[in-house]
Amino acid sequence: QVQLVESGGGLVQAGGSLRLSCAASRRTFSTYAMGWFRQGPGKDREFVAAISWSGTSTSYAEYYAESVKGRLTISRDNAKNTVYLQMNSLKPEDTAVYYCAARAGAVSWSAGSYDYWGQGTQVTVSS
Which of 16, 27, 58, 118 has CB 3.0 to 4.6 Å from 6, enough for a Cys bridge? Predict the structure, then answer.
């Protein structure tokens, strides 16, 4: 079982920045691929970004939705059991509840393939 707790959401003006954090409870965090998803008002949950687990490598593969490429960056710190989402140049359409998720094995874009979810953190971008 992996418990995930997101933090860092809030209200920001368009063009501003936020950094979301997701702390995991499990010591084997490094073996999990991690993803960020979001759900806006009246919308389905959608993929935002994901990062692989590294195995014995010191590098990770990162994946992004087209709508956030160049503005959002996912990273992880296995020593802290934490994954981050740095959000720059925010737009009103980025307004959503942001969820982090974990899955054992390969990274995935599909929400249904993730085993563990956090409770979500609200991000509101005003125009």
Answer: 118
pLDDT at 58: 64
Is-contact 102 32, C-beta < 8 A? yes
β-pair partners for 123: 10, 96
Positive/negative CA dihedral, 50, 76, 71, 21 = positive
Distances (CA, A) of 33 to 3, 10, 41, 115: 14, 25, 27, 10
HEC string for 10-59: EEEECCCCEEEEEEECCCCHHHEEEEEEEECCCCCCEEEEEECCCCCCCC
Distance of alpha carbon 96 from alpha carbon 124, whole angstroms = 7
Please state, as a whole number, how many other Cβ atoms lie within 10 Å of the Cβ of residue 48.
Answer: 25
Which CA distances in Å does 46 have to 31, 41, 59, 81?
Answer: 23, 12, 26, 24
What is the average per-residue pLDDT within 12-35? Answer: 92
